[in-house]
Amino acid sequence: MRFGILKELTEKRVAITPDFVKKLVAQKHEVVFEKGCGANSALADVLFEEAGAQASDRTEVLSSSDVITTILPLATEELSNVKKGAVLISQFQPFAQAEVCETLANHGLTGFSLDMIPRSTIAQSMDVLSSMASISGYKAVLTAANYLPRYMPMLSTAAGTIRPAKMLVLGAGVAGLQAIATGRRLGAVVEAFDTRAAAKEEVLSLGAKFVEVEGATDDRGAGGYAVEQTEEYKKRQSELIFDKVSKADIVITTAQLRGRPAPLLVNEDMLKAMPDGAVCVDLAATTGGNVAFSKHREIVKQHGVTIIGNSELSDDVAEHASQLFSRNVENFLNVFLSEEGLTYDFENEIIGDSCIVYQGEVRYGAPALTK
Ligand code: NAD
Known about the structure:
The chain contains 12 helices and 19 strands. The protein is α/β, with parallel strands linked by helices and 371 residues long. It has 2 domains: 146 residues, NAD(P)-binding Rossmann-like Domain (Rossmann fold), CATH 3.40.50; 183 residues, Rossmann fold (3-Layer(aba) Sandwich). The radius of gyration is 22 Å and the shape is globular. The structure holds nicotinamide-adenine-dinucleotide. Nicotinamide-adenine-dinucleotide (NAD) binds next to helix 6 and helix 7.
């Protein structure tokens, strides 16, 4: 089979790195790459060539590859240039992008959505959501530190003592936990909140304080994802969060609800109550944002607070983000790729759930996927 690697149009990352190219070539597959695809991830063309891939231009990669993997989905306009019957692997988010399956099907393609791989123990090694979220959580804290006109750690100097920064993390999933760990390493006093009961123990184990709201809806059976909460709970949560936000130098928000808009956790009144110079980093910006005024890839200042909206902060650590993404894709393909090509066993949960379109037929939403 021929594998294609493209330069991402809005990202620094690249979906397949030379390490994986070597393994594909050893398996007797061909690999073509668009020149410059890894340039922003510290991966020069020569590294792809040394690994056994051939340099090409975008049109040729699109029209000649049997399998194309990208970080973000190709634009619809480019799909007509893709080889008929090809397999596209990307993060299609079919639960949020209503038309994506139909579009792939209309072009007669097969689509695998990496974000649909079940978040089970067996599939952990192919979980791009976790790999990227962890990097984003780390980078969110470094970005906040850059914009904060204060130190993070406590310092005792001859000129006096500096108090440590107070950091609040809202949403203690993969990104939030990495943000807590990074904030703690930089010396901040960290508090965190999550609606999932299981998050408490993880927050405490990282040396942060857990902000507890009584009466959360039971989330067991939601596959590790957060569930919608009652109005009463949301009111109590909002009052407690108001108090915590109003004292924070840094607020990192990561709260997402799969397939639905992100909950607004920091409203305008809270921003007004925050100390001047405070910084909010909103990792949920693409799904509506957890912070009032936040916009993806924009930095705005409101009521003296810098609000940084960015759901793709992992892209700012492009080399390692590419390395981990590529490793995740390799582990995923190992499930069904051999020298002969791809074997589609839809009884296998990993294949069945992630294959959203098969040879022009929409599979997303099929009974096997909604079990
Ligand atoms: P996510 O990106 O969907 O959400 C981030 C966090 O925001 C979650 O912890 C969620 O509970 C929280 N949240 C949602 N609404 C909130 C609200 N109103 N207020 C505060 N917090 C809110 O989640 P994620 O980080 O991708 O993962 C969530 C869980 O899934 C974690 O427990 C993680 O450990 C688990 N997980 C398991 C596996 C696996 O077993 N393979 C892989 C990845 C994640």
